[in-house]
Amino acid sequence: xxxxxxxxxxxxxxxxxxxxxxxxxxxxxxxxxxxxxxxxxxxxxxxxxxxxxxxxxxxxxxxxxxxxxxxxxxxxxxxxxxxxxxxxxxxxxxxxxxxxxxxxxxxxxxxxxxxxxxxxxxxxxxxxxxxxxxxxxxxxxxxxxxxxxxxxxxxxxxxxxxxxxxxxxxxxxxxxxxxxxxxxxxxxxxxxxxxxxxxxxxxxxxxxxxxxxxxxxxxxxxxxxxxxxxxxxxxxxxxxxxxxxxxxxxxxxxxxxxxxxxxxxxxxxxxxxxxxxxxxxxxxxxxxxxxxxxxxxxxxxxxxxxxxxxxxxxxxxxxxxxxxxxxxxxxxxxxxxxxxxxxxxxxxxxxxxxxxxxxxxxxxxxxxxxxxxxxxxxxxxxxxxxxxxxxxxxxxxxxxxxxxxxxxxxxxxxxxxxxxxxxxxxxxxxxxxxxxxxxxxxxxxxxxxxxxxxxxxxxxxxxxxxxxxxxxxxxxxxxxxxxxxxxxxxxxxxxxxxxxxxxxxxx
Length: 507
Fold this sequence. Notes:
CATH architecture of the domain at 367-506: Alpha Horseshoe
Helix content: 55-70%
CATH topology of the domain at 367-506: Serine Threonine Protein Phosphatase 5, Tetratricopeptide repeat
Number of helices: 28
Strand order of the largest sheet: 1-2
Order of helices and strands: EHHEHHHHHHHHHHHHHHHHHHHHHHHHHH
CATH class of the domain at 367-506: Mainly Alpha
Shape: elongated
Number of strands: 2
Largest sheet: 2 strands, antiparallel
Radius of gyration: 25 Å
CATH superfamily of the domain at 367-506: Tetratricopeptide repeat domain
Distance between the termini: 67 Å
């Protein structure tokens, strides 16, 4: 049976890698410059095995459809499935592949409607094959799990678990098919945080099929989520031993090392991945991101450039290369990358916000304000942008007019209900002191505290620099850099202030 690499069964990545993602959170951080790659870019998992075709005439008709799906060209696969099913609506193989493509694409784009269409196709494939092909249940099960995540309805996951259990209990299902179903049920258990049950299912999958790469990979993910570093590393080591020539195996172990901040080991694994497969685009993306985390933006830029050479249609990678260039003081090139990212994905509020940050550092005040406004028009719930917008009004001399509306909510908020953004705004408007801002930093020893410390010192540095107090401005920017919160716009700004030759604090 042929194994294929697909994004089809990586839905749990969104949950299990949240700790490795930089996300917008009103209370955690106000600013983001680095955009992490999407799950499809960062990690792949084997979705299991394709079902054997039981009808040769149908198989011949669907050869091109299967080829398109295996190459992950989901939109063309859906079109080809439409063409086949228009003349042969009972072709269960076409229903299976079209359904799989729809579930994959719907998951990738977070589109519930497309996922539901894929679930419907999968159900019809099961019925028209007279329930004889167990793997036809897989897009149905995965689709239900995806809907559970997208729509926050645990009942969908419960349904998927119930159906998978019933199918596995059938006497007609055994071997590889049963291993795939255990794997699928394990992923569903993982999506609703039933970690021990997920471990049991993944272990059952590899017992039934010792070469089930996807099950091993998911098992490593569960151990990582549980914080069991020894078992997580041990499982990744086992994967590399069993699948020594698989670039996916090395890439995924590199991702775990990156997650636990063992950057040198991560880079070594990504490099091995590229030795095995020089055009393995995910490894370039991952290694580039690791170089950024490690504080080596020049090497990061090289890897992102190589990734874009292989596939220039990657808005997130332009965004990341822009960040790498910005960290080197290449403002013009950084802006060009951010604009290209937006050209490819014009409705992405995060990319527009990042363009606003880049213009901010380039002292292009009007352009920065326009980018922030466009971002907010697409997603009004980005309160973290308010301090940046307010500081633009300070620089433009309109704080007493345009800035008033921006801080109105913070001024009216009762002291016991103020969030981190409120405190930043109040300090900018000179309503509280430096000490009061720093005292507002959360006492919890977590990423939120680290981010707030970075942002507090960055904005205090801006305030001091604006008052020509360059000595104290430099002190605050250095304090911001001590946090190593490289993913924050505030950190990038502090880096530019300290390292840029034209910065007034260095004169």
